[in-house]
Write a structure and sequence with these properties.
The chain is built from 3 helices and no strands. The protein is mostly helical. Helix 1 packs antiparallel against helix 2. The longest helix is centred in the middle third of the chain and has 78 residues. The relative contact order is 0.10.
Length: 145
């Protein structure tokens, strides 16, 4: 065979029938060795799959707990901000300010109340954005004060 010594070319092409028979026997021997190695790998893969399945049960429990915690957090934060917005709106009504100020607080409280409902139903991302929008509306009302 000619060429570079480090080239990754295949084996030489056999020229005689004897060389062909020897090459076929070598390939068959390699296939048997590969099959035995594949069987060992399959056993190892099966054991790894069982371990992953056990870990998956724990992960599923953690995921459910995380989702429950996120719902409670979104609902609790929304309720707290709703009450704070309503209290601020009532306090601003007693003072002589433009009607825009208590309206902004009440509007922000209404948005936070909607976020509370969405958060309790599992729509925590939308609830987060609504909470941010509600607090921003209340801050806008505070700027008018």
């Amino acid at each position: 065979m000619s060429g570079r010594a480090d080239s990754d070319t295949g084996p030489e092409i056999p020229e005689t029938d004897a060389e062909v028979a020897k090459t076929d026997a070598d390939v068959a021997g390699r296939n048997i060795a590969v099959t035995e190695t594949d069987a060992e790998d399959a056993k190892t893969d099966a054991e790894a799959a069982e371990t992953d399945a056990d870990a998956g049960e724990t992960d599923a429990g953690d995921t459910a707990e995380d989702a429950r915690r996120a719902r409670w957090t979104a609902a609790g934060t929304g309720a707290l901000l709703t009450l704070a917005g309503l209290a601020a709106a009532l306090l601003r009504l007693t003072r002589s300010v433009t009607p825009l100020v208590p309206a902004a607080y009440a509007g922000g409280a209404a948005v936070c109340a909607l976020a509370t409902v969405l958060g309790s139903r599992g729509r925590t991302r939308r609830a987060l954005w609504l909470l941010i929008a509600g607090v921003m509306a209340m801050a806008l009302g505070d700027q008018f004060d």
